[in-house]
Amino acid sequence: MHTMWPKKSLKLTANKHIAITGSNGFIGSEIKKHLLKKGYKLSCLQRNIPAQKEKGVTYIKYELSNKNALHKLEDVTHIIHTAYQAYNIKSKNADSTNIIGTSALIEYAKLKNIPITFLSTLSAHNKAKSHYGLNKLYLEGLFNLEKDCILKLGLVIGSKGLFSKIKEIINKALFIPLIGGGKQPIQTIGITDLHIVIENIISKNIKGRYNVAEEMAFPMMELYTNTADYLNKKIRFVPIPYWLIYNTCQILEFFGLELPVSSESVIGLKCLRKFETAKDIKTLGVSISTFKENLKKLS
Question: Which CATH superfamily is domain 10-297 in?
Answer without folding.
Answer: NAD(P)-binding Rossmann-like Domain (3.40.50.720)
